[in-house]
Predict the structure of Oligopeptide/dipeptide ABC transporter, ATPase subunit.
Amino acid sequence: MRRLRRPSVVLGLAIVTLLLLCTLFAGLLAPHDPNAIAPSEKFLPPAWEEGGDASYLLGTDQLGRDVLSRLIYGARTSLMIAGVAVVLAAAFGIAMGMLSGFYRGWVDTVIMRLADVQLAFPFILLALAILAVSDTKSAIRIIFVLAIADWVIHARVVRSRVLVEREKEYVRGARALGASNARIMLRYILPSVLPTALVIALIELAVLMLLESILAFLGLGIDPPAVSWGTVLADGRENVAIAWWMLVFPGMAIFLAVLAMNLVADGLADVLDPRLKLTGRFARGAARKRERPVVPVAGGSPLVAGAVADASADPPLLAVAGLRVEFPTDDGPVVQAVQDVSFSLRAGERVGIVGESGSGKSVSALAIMGLLDAPGRVAAGSVRLRGRELLDCSERELNKVRGRELGMIFQDPGSSLNPVFKIGWQVAEAIELHQECGKGEARRRAIEALRLVNIRDPERVADCYPFEVSGGMQQRVMIAMALSCRPGVLIADEPTTALDVTTQAQILRELDALVDELDTGVVLITHDLGVVAEFTDRTIVMYAGSVCESGPTEQLIAEPRHPYTRALLDAVRELEGEEGVAETVRGEPLDPRDRPPGCPFAPRCPLAMDVCREQAPRLVGEDGEDGERAVACFAANPEEVSPHEHAARR
């Protein structure tokens, strides 16, 4: 709150407080009836001018009415009209901005074109069309005109914020937990947008007070005997030559009110940002507390009985077959991001998916979760969870699966956690979505989930914002959220990439122990073969959206058969304890928009043959429990070359 003590903000608050007092206690503060006519005392100057009267501090108007009393009562009318108008405009504008920014597509087009038409139509013409033809100019009509003119501002500001917020990882994380669109908008995005919306509303309150005065100045203000600052200003315009005070004082009142509201809005913007709440000695004290790191507890609390997934069932927990994901482009061609990816996962098993950036690892995971952003789409394939086809499920049905049966940990915990909610609330939210319990019980389970991921003092951490804890602690929170409902399958998308090596190893050990207790099947996505070697049972190597090799991790690392797998291993020589500079995979990764007809790795492969550039190799072998290997390479499978050469000769 120290930010409200800045001189400029204090000045604004003082003026706004005075304005509110005039609004609430006009009858007590005004020395005269604002409409009391005294012909004998018209055009009296202010009390300090020659000929002034002390009982009329700011003078009188052409009818002998007290200017000060009219300004006090006028403040109430002007603030009421502008206040109601801004509430209506903000409510409608925020709703339209949320819908436009969140759904995009035709919804965004319709709302924004309507806003463009609104902006193209001058405000004065709109006011004339509604007020000039009316027999009466009531407060309701003026409020209606102001609200119509103002909603576009709120809608555009909110839309721009929603477009940014909806792309953040914490929104994707909410989808992964099974939250519906309405819940995501109201519980996740709206709190992030609301501080900006409130600041804009306060600024627009000042703007609407100014617009009301302009309407009255043009003769379109509220009908007498009601008085507003605009009507007082309009009276002054007609008599400015002989009574300057009738124009100057209402003009000063409007100027000071608009200035004050903008100063308060500036201070409010800082106060509503939780990242700026801690300042001065309070921030230094909190920083000293955070310097004492939250030390992981050795071991964790035992898991609740009955929460372990059933590993005895013969069918796999997750079965992906022939998955193909494509992205249409504006210039015509469709980009094939993932091609014919297949694998299975059983209870308690760990499968690693490894490859360079752009190899299709994360896109495959998002497709499995049903979280692909438009225009991405699953063009073919099957994704079965416990025998149920997920690609046929509606969004509502997927929301019941995500979080409860299928969990996901995203790459960057800092952006995956909502910055405006405390950690405990976010973990409890996942529990509330899928388990029948009240808020108190959900918080208790959330604290227990934080304890299970080896966070010491989980009660304190639950009351922290995400930015108040370290990156390693944020990742533990993400793991707690993903496992809070004990899903059978967990997809971890590079969960330790943003962490240092020491914290990375610690997080992996804790995750390893926790999924062992839960008997959870894990799909680990990474570019680090060292992580794969330590954590997974089987490994799938992807390149340019396709599987190039798969098999038991130990065998694959000991005897890689695909040149790309060997190149990845050469790039991490520390796995074999070799010294020297690690090699890199030569050449540039494939541009998915310019995919060659043959093997996608051929331009970078030291073993490439003519057939490799002409024909894409198929994946030969089965990656099953019996330890068989599968590889898509003509050099590794020379028997695959013969049919092609025979066809070429013919």
Summary: The chain has two domains: 2-276, 319-420+465-649. The chain is about 50% helix and 10% strand. Confidence is low (pLDDT under 50) at residues 275-313, 623-627, 646-650.
